[in-house]
Specification:
By secondary structure, the chain is mainly α. It is built from 14 helices and 2 strands, in the order ααβαααααααβααααα.
Length: 367
């Protein structure tokens, strides 16, 4: 018996790893009609792990001090062996993770997988999206460049438009009246400790709900694509005659991860500065306001919305209402039908909303 077999045997007789693997891998059946969109969850887990690993490596050399932060990032890029690669992977990875997360939510939206009994799954995914946006925003300040300093100034200024508590909220976020060393300390703590812990907890909750409720079958290819759950008692959605998770869908997951990795490395090696405007390479100067400061692409719709309305408060209200509607969508949309082509009103609203979001992004970029 080889050493790996001995280790397996040792573990199997103690904790039953063979039975566990059979139950969770070969015995875990998925719908026969499952498609490539379902593998986006695995791609997200992979990209999240990549962010954690590169983030820990950056922490070894990064100094969270307003007087040293920019110099430490410059040293990572120029002096640390493969430091430039690690930083590029972290920066590019954060943008691509947001893109994959949005695609994942779009697929859930169009396949009606947010409908009952999966309201909590949708809510946990929606909160995860906001936490990923939050960790991206807090990480934006850490290089302490002109871009990060003034983008954070603009972003935190928006909170001042909230009546009664606006000024106090801005000072709470910044640790003072202006963006400064205390802001960097707060954003650093949020970026490396508070938000990652929240994300880890929510990912656990999301996976737990997926395991307890069962995976939903794609509505396409079904004669009856309506929700069959009556809401009278708990029921696990089984797929008798389905395909086993291992090895069938593991191959699909690995293919999607490899495709993502290829695209990711293509950007890292051939266009690594696509997410870095020139102000990202100038140290922060509180006394010199750059001519054009724009947020990351996924914040451009929010940025442009604030500019459209006559007051920032109205812009914040519009965004708050839109986000609240999205969060509560499973409780608002009670139509049991899941197939998008059998929900013309939903389809028109969803496509219109996405086009509006993209339009605001393009408008914000060129405005």
């Amino acid at each position: 018996m080889s050493i790996p077999e001995k280790i397996y045997r040792w573990l199997d007789v103690r904790i039953g790893v063979g039975e566990l693997a059979e139950k969770e891998l070969t015995g875990y059946h998925l719908p026969v009609t499952i498609n490539v969109w379902y593998s986006l969850g695995s791609v997200l887990l992979f990209s999240l792990a990549l962010q954690v690993v590169t983030g820990i490596l950056l922490l070894v050399y990064y100094v969270p001090d307003a007087d040293k932060a920019f110099a430490s990032v410059t040293a990572i890029m120029n002096d640390v062996p493969f430091g430039w690669l690690i930083r590029m992977c972290h920066a590019v990875g954060s943008n691509m993770m947001v893109a994959v997360l949005l695609l994942h939510m779009f697929s859930v939206l169009f396949m009606g997988s947010y409908k009952r009994p999966r309201e909590l799954s949708w809510l946990s995914g929606f909160i995860l999206l906001n936490m990923v946006m939050g960790i991206s925003l807090t990480g934006y300040l850490l290089p302490w460049s002109q871009l990060s300093f003034w983008a954070t100034t603009v972003a935190t200024n928006s909170a001042g438009a909230i009546p009664l508590i606006g000024d106090e909220l801005v000072q709470f976020l910044r640790g003072g009246r202006l963006v400064g060393p205390y802001t960097l300390g707060r954003f650093f703590a949020l970026h490396v400790a508070v938000i990652p812990l929240g994300i880890a907890l929510l990912v656990g909750v999301h996976l737990f709900l997926l395991k307890r409720i069962g995976i939903s079958a794609p509505p396409s290819g079904q004669k009856d694509s309506r929700v069959r759950w009556k809401g009278d008692s708990y029921r696990y959605e089984e797929h008798p005659g389905g395909i086993p998770f291992y090895p069938n869908y593991v191959v699909q997951d690995m293919s999607s991860i490899c495709f993502y990795l290829a695209l990711f490395l293509l950007v890292v090696f051939f266009d690594p500065y696509i997410f870095f405007p020139k102000d990202a390479f100038i140290p922060a100067n509180p006394f010199q306001t750059p001519a054009h400061i724009k947020p990351e692409w996924y914040f451009l719709p929010n940025y442009q919305t604030l500019k459209i309305f006559p007051s920032e408060f109205m812009g914040l209200m519009a965004q708050g209402l839109a986000m609240t509607f999205l969060a509560l969508l499973p409780f608002v949309d009670r139509n049991p039908e899941r197939h998008p082509l059998k929900r013309p009103l939903f389809l028109a609203c969803a496509i219109g909303g996405i086009l509006l979001w993209i339009g605001l992004m393009i408008w914000g970029h060129y405005s």
